[in-house]
Amino acid sequence: MNHIQDVAVLGAGISGSSLAKSLADRGWETVLIDSKHFPRHKVCGEFLSPESQSMLQQFGLHEAVRSLQPRLINKARLIFDHGTPLEIPLPGTALGLSRYALDSTLHKAATSSGVHVKTGTTVTSVYPSRRGFTVETKQGKKTQTYEARAVIAAWGANCRAGLPGHRPSGNLKPTYIGVKSHFKGIDMEPVVELYLFDGGYLGISPVEDGSVNVAALLKRNTLEQTGKSVSGLIEAACRRNSKLAQKLAHAIPVPGTQAAVAPVELNRKPLSWELIPQVGDASLMLPPLCGDGMSMALRSAQLCAPLADSFLSGNLTLAGWQESYSRSIQHQFNGPLQWGRRLQWLFGVPFLPRLLLGAAHFAPELAYKLVQATRLKESGS
To answer: How far apart are CA 53 and CA 94, in angstroms?
Structure first.
């Protein structure tokens, strides 16, 4: 084809949609491509941490997100089967908001900025070409080819084989599986709760329509005897924490909100660039217990957007973009990633979490500092 896009963003989740909007706002012709149809439910904590607020403002998304009437959250609560729950104040106001509502709103905002949004469209190949890159896609039986001066991968953690960033998992069974469902009938304070138990953890966060989002990360080998349905896996988690069972005893699942994903690889190395830049979960994944995944997606897009703009303007080479972006990812995420993985490991050691909980009750300021170590810092810090 003769027409060439300035940039193609592959993946229309939080990082891809916000990045595409940002580039279109800068005047670049942008196409946003995703294999899924929207709106749709996705495995996610559906918790926009306080650190997200300034980034939403910078992307021009704050008012659109607020119009969805998200639930305001001001503290976190850690709950084990035994012992007193540990409450930790958040450094600001977090938002409880479903991905079903958020993703569609981001697409509308991107479209309003001039982005060409193509959903239900699978990317089959990406390769360099004379004018930049060629992206081949398929929608049903129809194929289409795009040419773009720049291409950015925002297609999540499980990139399909043959595309930049694909990391084969071999023949091993996935270590973790993620599940989510919305429930009605649960009275929630302005708090996000994290229930910990042998074999994983489960978070409960209020969302915009009066329901709550229940999302769990579960070790596959501890749940092999349970049913494979989302409800069956959540019930299995309840059997491992009596307080969780009490919390969900009278909860009513919302039909159509169930989702699952596997494998969830928490120890994969960060990948900021492979042929093309990688943003969001395509680049790296913070352990879900950090509650900062949506903020991480926004931050990686925030880091990538000005560099892409400089490249498209002719002020930065592709090699310079790669070097600067890779350095920024390392600087921004290395600390939270290491601390998050340490906490993930600690919570997986029998009896150690209860000892940590006791120590946290004795010295709550240490618990707060430990949580802060897993958080993203404000931009520019």
So the answer is: 8
Q: Does residue 164 have a cis bond before it (omega within 30 degrees)?
A: no
How far apart are the C-alpha atoms of 20 and 109, rounded to whole Å?
A: 10
pTM over 0.85? The answer is: yes
Q: What is the pLDDT of residues 238-259, one digit of tens each?
A: 999 999 999 999 999 999 999 9
Domain region containing 342: 5-169+265-373
Domain containing residue 319: CATH number: 3.50.50.60
Contact predicate 159/15, CB 8 Å: no
Cβ atoms of 295 and 51 within 8 Å: the answer is yes
Residues contacting residue 303 through CB under 8 Å, at least 6 positions apart: 325, 328, 329, 332
| Domain count across the chain | 1
Q: How many CB atoms sit inside 10 A of residue 38's CB? A: 18
Among 23, 43, 196, smallest CA distance to 115 is for: 23
Report the SS3 class of residue 290. helix
Radius of gyration (Cα) for the chain, nearest Å? 21
Residue 161: pLDDT band with limits 50, 70, 90 = confident
Sign of torsion over alpha carbons 268, 272, 277, 283: positive
